[in-house]
Amino acid sequence: MDSSRLKYSTLYLLLGVLLLLSMLAAIRTGAVGITYSDIVVSLAKVFGLHPNTRTEPIIEGVFLYIRLPRVLLCVVIGAGLSVSGALMQALFRNPIVEPGLIGTSSGAAFGAALVFVVGKSFFTQYSELLGTFILPLSAFTFSLIATLLVYRLSSSFGKVTVTIMILVGVAINAIAASCTGFLSYIARDPQARSITFWNLGTFSGANWNSVMLVYAVTIPSIFLVLRYSKALNALLLGESEAGYLGIDTNKLKMRIIILNTLIVAVGTSAVGVIGFVGLIVPHLLRMIKGSDNRFLIIGSALLGAVIMNVADMVSRSIIAPAELPIGIVTSFVGAPVFIWILRRQKGIHSKGGYYA
Amino acid sequence: MLDVKDIVYKIGEHTILNNVSAAFEPGKLSMIIGPNGSGKSTLLKIISNEIVNYSGAVHYDKKLLTKKDKLSISKVRAVLSQESELSFPLTAGEVVMMGRYPHFDFKPSVKDKTICSEALQRMNIEKLKERNYLTLSGGEKQRVHFARVLAQIWEQPEDKYRYLLLDEPIASLDLNYQHEFLRIAKEVALQNTVVLAVIHDINLALQYADLVMLLNNGKLVAAGPPAKVITSENLNNIYGVKCRVINDALSHFPYFIVEQ
Q1: How would you list the strands of the sheet with B162-167, edge to edge?
Q2: Upstream peptide bond of A220 is cis (omega within 30 degrees of 0)
Q3: Closest residue in B to A354 (Cα–Cα)
Q4: CA A43 from chain center: how many Å?
Q5: Is the separation of the CB atoms in A27 and A34 below 8 Å?
Q6: Which pLDDT score, from 0 to 100, does residue A201 have?
Q7: Domain spans of chain A, in order of start
Q8: Span A234-238, average pLDDT
Q9: Which of B231, B228, B178, B238 is nearest to B208 (CA)?
Q10: Torsions phi, psi of B230, nearest 5?
Q11: Domain map of chain B by residue range?
Q12: Distance between B229 CA and the closest CA of chain A, angstroms
C-alpha cells in the first residue's frame, strides 16, 4: 500500500483504532485476567449505572485502581514524549533530537528527585499537597534549566551542529544523572532510593492523582502547540526564511521550548526518564507521510500512545510475575533504531542544525 | 516604492555599509552588483528586516520599516535566498504552500490552493508537486522556492506595491534556468512590483536590469541604467581587471569581456 496516498484523516482514524485496541490489550494483560464484560460492568458502575451482571470486587479493584490508571498514564506520557520529540526535531531542524538527548528529561528527573528526597527526608510536614504541586514545578524548573543550558552552550560554539548539541547534551545529562544518583544515595524512602525509578522509568506507581495531573498539563499543551505547527513548518526552511514569512522566530522558539519542557517535566516527574520513544515515533510518521508538523504532532500523540502501551505490556509480561523498568525496553529497541536513523541520515551533522 | 536612506552598518570598528541611499521603483528590475565583501547582501538583509541594528531608514510605500511589521510586510514582500537549508521530507507542493502561510491561520483556503497551483504552473513545475523535495536537483529545488515566493505575493494588494527581493538567486543554476529566472523576475516587476536582486554576473545585469546599483567597500559607486553604471572605467577601478564593454550592433544590449 502506498501510504503517501492515504489521507491525513484516514491515518488519524487508523491510529485511533490502533490506540483503542492497544489500550484494551494492555488492560487485559497481567496476572489477573480481566474480561471485556468486567471492563464494561466496572465502567458502568463508575458512571452510576446498575448493570445486571456482576463482577468480582477484586477484579473490579485491579481494573479501576491499577490497570486503568496505568494504561491511561501510558497513553498520555507516550503522547507527550512523542509530541515533544516532534517539537524538538522541528525546532532544532534535525530528525535525531529528542528530550532524553538534550537534558530535558534528566533535568526533570533531578528536579523531581530533589523534592521527593529532600522533601520527604527533611520536612516532617511533607504533605500530599506539597507532592502534587511542588514536585512537577521543581521538575519543570530544572528541566528548563537543563534544556536552556544545552541550548545556550551549544550556541556558544557558533553554528549549532547536532554533534555539538549531543555532546553538550551528554555532559548535562551526566551532571543531572549524577545529582539524581547522589539524591537516591542519601534518600531514606525505598522508592526514591531506587535509582532505576528515575533513570529507567516505570509505570508501576501509576495512580489516579498522577493521571489527572499529567492529563491536565499534557492535553492542553498539545492543543496549544498545534497552533504553532504552521510556524514550525516555516522554521524548517531556516530562521531567516521563517522571518520572511512573517514569523517571529525568537518568540516561537521560546514558547515551544517552554511548552515542550512542561510536557516532558510533568511526565518525567510521574514516571521517570523514558528514552527513545520521542525520537522514533515522529521518525516513523515522517517515513509514512512527510514532515508537515500538524500531522506529526497529531500523529505522534496517537502513535506515541500506542507504542508506549505496547512497551509497557512487554515490560510487564516479559519476566512476569516480575516487572522490567520500561526504560530498559524502550532503550533496548530504541537505541539500535537510533543508530539506523543516524546511518540513513549520512552527513546530517553537516546539514541541518542551525546558526545561532 | 522602496527607499533606503543614509544606511550605515558597522560590525565593531568595521564599516560594512557607509551612507548608502537609493530608491527602487515598481515596474523595474533593479540589481545590486559589486565585488565580494562590497556589502550588497548586507544591504539586502537590511531591506528585508533581517539585520535591524543599522542606522538610517528603510521605507516601503513611504512607510518606515520597523522591527514589528514582520507579519504585515510578509503579505506583500517575499525574499528568496541563494540556498535553503530545508532537510526534511516535504512535497514540493507543501513547500510552495509555505508561501501562503502569512495569508491564512490554520488551513489554506481554496484560493491559497489555486494560487499555489498557478505558481507551480508559472515555474513549469506542476509535475513536481507531489515529489519529495529532498529528491529534487539543485535547479529544481530553487525553482520550487521561486514558486514559493511568487505564491507569497501572488495577489496585487489595493493601493500597495509588492516587493520581491532576490539574494543571488541564480548563482547555482544552469544557464537556461538563469535566464528563465530573470525573465520571470522582469515579468513580475512589470506587474506593479519592486524587484531587487543581488547578482554576481555583470553580463546578466547588462542584459536584464533596468536599474543597477554598484557597490564597493560599502559605498555606493554609481546607480542608474546599466549602460551608464557598468562602464569599463568603473569595472577597471573596482574589480582591478582590464575590461571592455562592447556595444555590438547585433545584440540588443551591451556585454563585457575581460581582456588579457
Answers
A1: B77-80, B162-167, B193-198, B29-33, B211-216, B219-224
A2: no
A3: B85
A4: 27
A5: yes
A6: 82
A7: 3-355
A8: 90
A9: B178
A10: -90, 85
A11: 1-76+161-226, 80-156
A12: 30
> Which three cell numbers mark A323?
516487572
Q: What is the pLDDT of residues B132-178, one digit of tens each?
A: 998 898 889 999 999 999 999 999 888 789 999 999 888 778 888 89
Q: What is the mean pLDDT of chain A?
A: 83
Q: How many CA atoms lie within 13 A of B250 on its CB side?
A: 0
What integer pLDDT is reported at residue A22 of this predicted model? 94
The pLDDT tens digits for A11-29 are 999 999 999 999 999 998 8
Do B255 and B206 contact (CB within 8 A), yes or no? yes
Cβ(B82)–Cβ(A89) under 8 Å? no
Residue B63: alpha-carbon gap to chain centroid: 20
Extended beta strands in B35-143, E state: 55-60, 63-64, 77-80
Q: Top-level CATH class of B1-76+161-226? A: alpha beta
- Whether the Cβ atoms of residue A246 and residue B101 lie closer than 8 Å to each other: yes
Amino acid at residue number B86: L
Report ipTM for this prediction: 0.90
Neighbours of A71 (CB within 10 A): 26
Q: Are B99 and B150 in contact (CB under 8 A)?
A: yes
Task: Please give the Cα distance from A225 to A234 (Å, whole number).
Answer: 14
- CA dist B109 and B107 (Å) reads 6
CATH superfamily, domain A3-355, is ABC transporter involved in vitamin B12 uptake, BtuC (1.10.3470.10)
Q: Evaluate if pTM is beyond 0.80.
A: yes
- Cell numbers of A231, please? 510556524
- Pairwise CA distance, residues A85 & B129, whole Å: 28
Distance from CA of A294 to the nearest CA of B (A): 10
pLDDT at A121 over 60: no
Contact B85 A238 (CB under 8 A): yes
Q: Which of B41, B87, B150 to mutate to test the interface with A (most CBs of A within 10 A)?
A: B87
